Amino acid sequence: MKYNRNVYQALTMITQFGINMLVPIFLCSFAGMFLDRRLGTSFWMILMFFVGTLAGFTNVFRFAKRVYETPAVTRKRSAAPVRDTGEDGTACARQESTDSQDTQKQGRL
Q1: Above 80 in pLDDT, residue 100?
Q2: What is the DSSP string of 31-53?
Q3: Chain centroid to CA 86: how far?
Q4: Which among 88, 50, 51, 93 is positioned nearest to 72, based on CA atoms?
Q5: Angle (CA) 86 92 93, round 5°
């Protein structure tokens, strides 16, 4: 059962990548076609297609960044991780609560 859950989570993530990429492209393309018909021009569709493509890549980049920065254990429990940036600029999980618990355990021994 656990294997099937992981497969469904992966399929959901792939679907989200596709939706995040395609929806802005289609919406901007249709808006460009509408403007071309309304204004009698022929360049808005192409311009809006590229704007939609840029927006789609931005959405996918943000989504991938969020997925990559979230640890797998946290991803299963919640969607809002607690992150800090280390001295070298890399993201690292905050360890304050576990550090204080370890200190308390050592004090009792």
Answers
A1: no
A2: HHHHHHHHHT-SSHHHHHHHHHH
A3: 21
A4: 93
A5: 130
- Which token pair is 82? 């607690």
- How far apart CA 38 and CA 30 sit, in angstroms, is 12
* HSE-CB for 67 with a 13 A CA cutoff: 13
Q: Which residues pair with 91 in a beta bridge?
A: 85
Task: Evaluate if pTM is beyond 0.70.
Answer: no
How do residues 24-67 score in pLDDT, each as one tens digit? 999 999 999 999 999 999 999 999 999 999 999 999 999 999 88
pLDDT in tens, 66-94: 888 877 665 565 555 555 555 555 555 54
Q: How far apart are CA 90 and CA 69, in angstroms?
A: 10
The three-class DSSP label of residue 22 is helix
Which contiguous run of DSSP H or E holds residue 20? Answer: helix 2-39
CA atoms within 13 A on the CB side of 2: 1
Selection from 32, 34, 51 nearest residue 43 by Cα? 32
